[in-house]
Structure formats: C-alpha cells, structure tokens
Amino acid sequence: MATGQTIIDAIRVDIDDLNKTRITADATILRYLQEADDMIYPMIIASNVNEGVTVDETSYDISAATRTVTLTSSTVKAIKSAYVPGEGAPLARATWEGLLELWGPNYTYIGTPSNYLLMGNTLYIGPVPDKTYDLGLAYWPIHTLAVGTDMPYNGLLDTFFVWAGRTLCQAKDEYKLDVYAAIETRAQRELMRLFEFRRGAGTRSRNVRWSWPNRLR
User: Fold this and answer.
1) How far from chain centre, in Å, is Cα 43?
2) SS3 of 207, please?
3) Among candidates 37, 33, 60, which has minimal Cα distance to 142?
4) Most buried one in 79, 104, 181, 193, CB count within 10 A?
5) How far apart are CA 196 and CA 205, in angstroms?
6) Where are the beta strands (DSSP E) in 53-170?
C-alpha cells in the first residue's frame, strides 16, 4: 500500500522532475491527488460498493422520543448502512420531507426506526422511536490526503492516482474541461476493473457513468 509520498515520487519520475524544478512543492502535487480523489470518490459512493467503507465501532443509543443521534466522528462523508441489530432490514435513506411525514404532526408518530437522514454529524431518525434502540453504522469517511499517510482503497487505485496526478501536473492549474473529462473516463474504467475484480464478470453491466450524478458535461 502506497503513501501519499510514494505516489508523489512516482509522479515526479513520470514527469522527469526528481530534482523538483518543475513543481517545487510536494503539497502542490498532493493537492492534485486530492482533486483526483474528489472525482472518483463520489462515483464509488454512488455505486454503493464496499470500497473504503469504515464500520463504526461505536454503538449508538437511540432513546425513546428522541429523533436525532450525534455521531462521535465528524469525518463521515456518506452512510453505507445504518441498522438496528435484530430489527430486520437496514434503515432506508430519507429526505427531510419524508422524515416530516414519518414524524407526523407534533412528532406524534412513533415506532421502530426505519429511515434516516445524515446532516453534518447529526443523524435524524424516523419515525420517532418508541423505545431505546442500538444503532450500528457503516460509512464512507471524508478523505484528507497527506504525504505521510496511506492512500485510500488499499492500494487498488494507486495507478489511477499516479496517472491522474501526472495529468493534472501537466495541465498546470489550467482547469481545462477536457482534462477533467479524461480523468473522469479513466476513473470509470478503473472502477469497472475494480468491480470486476471484487465481484466477478457479472458487474460488467454496472454503468458507472450514469450512476454518478456530478459528472462533468
């Protein structure tokens, strides 16, 4: 598994910049790597796969008549699964309007938690719990890349990061649409390869492009 520095060094080899004359600061390349992750990570989340998922070791108590749970971690980007052990299917993601319907007028609708909405580090639960429940979470954490820490995805996307970082280095902050379109296309291919590796050839029918709502056009 590569660290941020390992990826940066590989990019410097590719752009013939080991003496740091073209890009003097590692922090500049690290910023490009963060941009690349900011492009591919929403695709992973939208595809609802398990790559990069963290299982929260905390068991949260949902008290009776309490509609919110404050998460101990402020680094939750999106929730993969929220579940109440022993209560069947995981909670479904809801909109605010959907929660208002589940809560009812003056929060009078009570029952087993069935839906949630994450806003910041607060989890809103509906309907209003009728008793105390334990809540378990699996989530995608916020990524803040650093020189001395491991890259995300257990090394499975390191080649993508080297390529994307090199491409952005060569673009030199010009932010051309065709550069980002090329990175998006490469990210889709890398994810298809990853999905096939994880799940077998049956995932070839998964359309990553159209599962990602923030694509550049």
Assistant:
1) 8
2) coil
3) 37
4) 79
5) 10
6) 54-55, 60-62, 68-70, 76-83, 92-93, 110-111, 115-119, 122-126, 128-129, 133-141
**Beta strand 115-119 with 92-93: parallel, antiparallel or unpaired?**
parallel
Strands (E), the chain: 54-55, 60-62, 68-70, 76-83, 92-93, 110-111, 115-119, 122-126, 128-129, 133-141
d(CA 195, CA 193): 6
Which tens digits make up the pLDDT trace of 93-151?
Answer: 999 999 999 999 989 999 999 999 999 889 999 999 999 888 889 999 999 999 999 99
149: Cβ–Cβ under 8 A, 6 or more apart, which residues? 3, 4
Instruction: Please report, as a single letter, which amino acid is at residue 101.
Output: E
Distance CA 80, CA 54 (A): 9
CA neighbours closer than 13 Å in the CB half-sphere of residue 216: 16
- End-to-end CA, the chain: 33
Q: For residue 72, give both structure tokens.
A: 């101990």
Taking the complete model, does pTM exceed 0.85, yes or no? Answer: no
